[in-house]
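> example.struct
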């Protein structure tokens, strides 16, 4: 692609209201945010449990920084794997009730590393059409054949599996779908993967901490064992309020990934201070269930208010992600800008992040939102 083609692309993005821009945040994450030096009520954060600026998490980070310094200095396999990293891996494994866990620097790197380590040319990856881009890219980069089944349509997946002749087959799904907020049909996926002798991998980035009786994610809803779902990926930058990701599974899987996952082997370890902060986040999630309770109350309150007070349709989502599908890109951008003018941040999500004609306002609810703040959002939507 030459510079003229780049310029043409940018002009087309602008003309079609698809041009992406960045704002500058001037405050810590929270339900009240300062953006470009102006205060806003924040309904587009993944800080679902309000831990990103929690005093105890900050204190743990500062103690880790004092003990280990800022940078980890090397990859995990050289000398960047500190005791803090190791303890966090053990505590994450215990939290999600699996034998072992392995830290990655981001969720994107975790998905790329796992998929490309497990499958290759001649194998097949089956993915939900609405999977996160990192899962889809992991399938593409693995050089395995990528087959996408209709969203949450286990029958479509079964029909594709039935004609596959590949020796190794991997089924990948989001736990909570990041743009729709609905939950994958995990019980059925477990049955299908077992019958077809396929791997099953669940990316529970948006479920960890928010879903399940104790916040252990979507797998807790169906009481899935490591035999049911051999590969679990979770991120640390959403409900846990920090940064990074992990993969959890049995002993052999984790040892295999240490040997083969290129995005683990060839990158610098996350700062140890982040690991210490995340260890505190895990304790808070375990000990302060009221955060999850309040989040669920906020979700129900918003859904009821949306249905009763506005012309927008209530969503099928029972997660913190509450999309309002508008359809037209220009209309969606216009509504997002009107909300921003009213002091409320709600992201306009446009293609290619979502399918054509499904542009939407993506509202995310947090445990720290008050009823008054949700009422303010509902009044603005009216």
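> example.seq
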């Amino acid at each position: 692609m030459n510079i003229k083609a780049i310029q043409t692309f940018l002009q087309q993005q602008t003309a079609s209201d698809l041009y992406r821009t960045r704002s500058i945040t001037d405050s810590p994450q929270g339900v009240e945010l300062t953006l470009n030096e102006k205060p806003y009520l924040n309904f587009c954060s993944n800080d679902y449990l309000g831990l990103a600026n929690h005093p105890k998490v900050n204190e743990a980070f500062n103690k880790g920084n004092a003990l280990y310094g800022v940078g980890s200095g090397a990859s995990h396999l050289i000398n960047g794997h500190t005791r803090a990293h190791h303890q966090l891996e053990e505590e994450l494994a215990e939290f999600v009730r699996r034998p072992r866990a392995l830290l990655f620097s981001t969720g994107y790197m975790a998905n790329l590393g796992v998929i490309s380590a497990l499958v290759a040319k001649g194998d097949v990856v089956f993915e939900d059409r609405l999977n996160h881009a990192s899962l889809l890219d992991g399938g593409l980069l693995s050089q395995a054949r990528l087959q996408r089944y209709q969203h949450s349509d286990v029958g479509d997946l079964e029909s594709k599996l039935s004609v596959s002749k590949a020796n190794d087959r991997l089924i990948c799904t989001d736990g909570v779908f990041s743009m729709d907020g609905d939950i994958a049909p995990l019980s059925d996926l477990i049955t299908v993967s077992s019958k077809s002798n396929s791997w099953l991998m669940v990316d529970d980035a948006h479920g960890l901490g928010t879903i399940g009786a104790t916040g252990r994610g979507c797998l807790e809803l169906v009481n899935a064992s490591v035999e049911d779902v051999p590969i679990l990926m979770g991120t640390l930058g959403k409900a846990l309020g920090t940064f990074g990701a992990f993969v959890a599974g049995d002993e052999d899987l984790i040892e295999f990934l240490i040997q083969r996952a290129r995005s683990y082997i060839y990158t610098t370890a996350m700062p140890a201070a982040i690991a210490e902060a995340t260890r505190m986040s895990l304790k808070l999630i375990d000990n302060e269930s009221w955060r999850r309770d309040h989040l669920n109350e906020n979700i129900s309150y918003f859904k009821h208010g949306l249905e009763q007070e506005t012309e927008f349709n209530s969503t099928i989502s029972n997660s913190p992600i509450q999309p309002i599908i508008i359809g037209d890109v220009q209309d969606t951008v216009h509504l997002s800008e009107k909300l921003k003018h009213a002091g409320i941040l709600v992201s306009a999500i446009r293609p290619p992040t979502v399918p054509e004609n499904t542009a939407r306002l993506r509202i995310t609810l947090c445990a720290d939102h008050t009823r008054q703040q949700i009422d303010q959002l509902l009044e603005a939507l009216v």
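> remarks
The radius of gyration is 21 Å.
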